[in-house]
Amino acid sequence: MRPKPSVVHCGRNFVSGARSGPDLHDELVRSGEVRSYRLAEDFLDLGAGVPEALSFWRRASPGSGLARILDRVRRGIKAGWRKSRLLDWYRDRFLALRPGLVHAHFGDVGAQLAPLCSELGLPLVVTFYGVDVSAFLREPRWQAPYRRMFSVAAKLVVLCETARDRLIRAGARVGQVELWNCLVDLASFPYAPRVPACEVRFVTAARFIEKKGYFTMLEALARLLSGGVKARLTALGMGPIKESILRRAADLGLRDRFTLIDTAGTPDFIAAYGKALESADIFVLPSTTGSDGDDEGGPALTMVMAQAAGLPVICTPFPGAEITVKEGETGLLCEFDDPESLAERMSFLAARPEMWNALGAAGSRLTASSFDPDGQTQAMVRIYRRALEAAP
Question: What pLDDT, on a 0 to 100 scale, did the predictor assign at position 15?
């Protein structure tokens, strides 16, 4: 009988399962096959004791060239102090817990921990989720840390083939990269057939950020309405461009046809989103690549949830969409950054309610087979075992 692997999960923060769906740590503990521990940087107050940079920093005139230079120096010293304290904290916890391997969540966390794992002889597994396998790969400051991580890590876990190819081009070894699907709380999104109402009810759930394609979505909705289609769009999310989205909707005359729900203060997003899906017909997500190079880097889990509930979907062919969106079988694809293309797809599906349940049922079956929490937990256990076998 093989001994149980022991793993410590490391990340910047951890949110409750009620908001994000099943937690990998909790599912591993429940499975009984892994001894799992969880650490997060927000458990540690890294601001305490940070030294001030240069005693005369505050005496510099605000806004002056000297003040700006000294402020950059001060921020650099703080960042170095924070990194040193953080690594000391992780070292102490690793030595106390004595895990068999370390699982870093997000590429930047893995890059930060790679030297420490190498020092302590701990196998490292790193999971990439989006920005860390898109925008970060373009930034010169991450190139050396990523190369060091590639030389140390036993396994690099990605959520789609595009992400795998990107890491390999950046220097990762072919056998080092593993494909995996995140855990989705499928039980909270039971399949239900769609029943047409007097208007077509589109829904989306995505952070209010550039890459989610909100402005394309709003322009497409305006085109749809101008063509005489009775429709409305509800958007759930949170993020920095919320006000810009609302202003654009107002400029397009969509106040009565567009509803934005800020979920920042929602204690149970899963429950709120499930309720919203009950009264929706079609899910829409025209994700794109942000100006900084950030893209999805894997399946959009809110879209997976909508498909589990039986909604047909319309989306762009972003990295990871191909896992659950098969053109004409589980949903429809539109062009990137193209309101006319999206409006055409929305109009086409709105006029054919007889297609909704065929697409929705097929999508629900596909997500059930691809994102089952038990199945993906076992898949991660197998990755851990391969990581332990690959480690020196």
Answer: 43
Distance CA 309, CA 365 (A): 10
Taking every pair of C-alpha atoms in the chain, what is the biggest distance, in angstroms?
Answer: 72
What distance in Å separates the CA atoms of residue 322 and residue 52, rounded to the nearest whole number?
50
> Other C-beta atoms within 10 Å of 221: how many?
25
Domains delineated in the chain: 6-43+100-183+372-390 (3.40.50.2000), 186-370 (3.40.50.2000)
Q: How far apart are CA 297 and CA 167, in angstroms?
A: 11
Residue 286 pLDDT level (bands cut at 50, 70, 90): very high
Q: What is the pLDDT of residue 86?
A: 85
pTM for this structure? 0.88
Question: How far is the C-alpha of 307 from the C-alpha of 302, rounded, in Å?
Answer: 9
Cα(231)–Cα(224) distance, integer angstroms? 8
Q: How many residues does the chain have?
A: 392
Nearest to 34 by CA among 298, 326, 334, 382: 382
Does residue 243 register a pLDDT over 50?
yes
Beta strands in 184-267 (DSSP E): 200-205, 231-237, 258-262
Which SS3 state, helix, strand or coil, does residue 60 take?
coil
Order of strands, edge to edge, in the sheet holding 331-333?
Answer: 258-262, 231-237, 200-205, 282-285, 313-315, 331-333
